[in-house]
Amino acid sequence: MNLEKVVFGFFVLLAATLNFGFFIGDLADPVQHNIYELFAAVVISLIATVLKFGDRTQIGAVHLATSLVADLQLVAAALAWTYAAHISADGVTAASTAAVVSLSGGALLANIVSVVLLVVETVSYHRR
After folding, report:
1. What are the sequence ranges of the domains in the chain?
2. pLDDT tens-digit readout, 101-126
3. Could you give the angle at the alpha carbon of 5 between the alpha carbons of 4 and 7, nearest 5°?
4. How many CA within 13 A on the CB side of residue 67?
5. From its phi and psi, is residue 105 left (phi > 0), alpha (psi between -120 and 50) or beta?
6. Are 19 and 104 in contact (CB under 8 A)?
7. Largest CA distance in the chain
8. pTM higher than 0.90
């Protein structure tokens, strides 16, 4: 068993599950979307991205691309939530929550692609 692959798979799956946990729920209800879960999703996604930098294969490049997309979407979601909660006079409204959750949904799609790539890579691995 390759410990590096275990750690890599762990962070890829954890990023996807944290993002899913934040995403699930009523689109416009801020009570159903925990800000700490969004923060954890951002941090774990960034860690997963760093772990993807070492792979020099074509599938590694696609892994990195999906991770960068997820990072961009999650950071944008976090910034939108921060703006709504701390800068906007209206506070966290249904519309601002919908925008944050929609951005998180884009990141979730990128995470799903990354998990599918991980499974395909694992299934196609040939022992030497």
Report:
1. 3-123
2. 999 999 999 999 999 999 998 888 76
3. 65
4. 28
5. alpha
6. yes
7. 62
8. yes
